[in-house]
């Protein structure tokens, strides 16, 4: 079984490249973040026509939004309000192999890494804190995927020196995410298959017309798995060519393969 995760940055604006992903890579399950569509306007029929008839949606008009689209049956859907304000940033479901799938969109956190002057940064840290408390009591094998909006390792950004005080790579965010990792012993699938310090980016700013020229990327998108299920993950890939498709998202898809 293959599971893909992609911050699509408005699903309705990017249906052609979503369809291309489905046809070229054919994941069994697709997790989308930042769909920017309330449930009643989400293009559900589009995905049904492609064979993704099992759908779990948590949408919001114009902002945020997550979705799980699947060719295989999903069970026990849940949605956590880790933002604590009703924003649509999480949806989860049970995979038929007995692994829970959690799809999350962590807040970006604004521009200033100081919660005393930037409420958005505080909300981001609190979001990760709520995830951590949830994770501490987690007992079932789980795969959590999505846009974490944190690049935790020095090699997860194009320049640690340039970005050390930039939101997504600050010490306080990295410390918060590491506390989340330790709370369940999560295995970072990306760095399991692409060991540090190898280059592994998933996001490039729209400010650069050609992301390949200066390659100022960051690894903001992640797939982490419970230790009990880590051996079932047999492959992982970052589909970087998608960043050069027509009208791309600034993120690229991740895909992992699970032995069931």
From TrEMBL:
Record-annotated Endonuclease/exonuclease/phosphatase domain positions: 4-251
Site location (Transition state stabilizer): 149
Pfam families referenced in this protein's UniProt entry, alphabetically: Exo_endo_phos
Domain of life the protein comes from: Bacteria
Record-linked SUPFAM superfamilies: DNase I-like (SSF56219)
Matches recorded under Gene3D superfamilies: Endonuclease/exonuclease/phosphatase (3.60.10.10)
GO MF terms held by the record: DNA binding; double-stranded DNA 3'-5' DNA exonuclease activity; endonuclease activity; metal ion binding
InterPro entries listed in its UniProt record: AP_endonuc_1, AP_endonuclease_F1_BS, Endo/exonu/phosph_ase_sf, Endo/exonuclease/phosphatase, ExoIII-like
Site (Interaction with DNA substrate): 251
Gene Ontology terms describing biological process: DNA repair
Keywords: Hydrolase, Magnesium, Manganese, Metal-binding
Cofactor notes: Probably binds two magnesium or manganese ions per subunit.
Cofactor entry: Mg(2+); Mn(2+)
Active site: 105, 147 (proton donor/acceptor), 251 (proton acceptor)
CDD domains according to UniProt: ExoIII-like_AP-endo (cd09086)
Site (Important for catalytic activity): 221
Residues bound to Mg(2+): 7, 34, 147, 149, 250-251
Family recorded in the similarity comment: Belongs to the DNA repair enzymes AP/ExoA family.
Database matches in NCBIfam families: xth (TIGR00633)
Official protein name in the record: Exodeoxyribonuclease III
Organism: Sphingomonas sinipercae
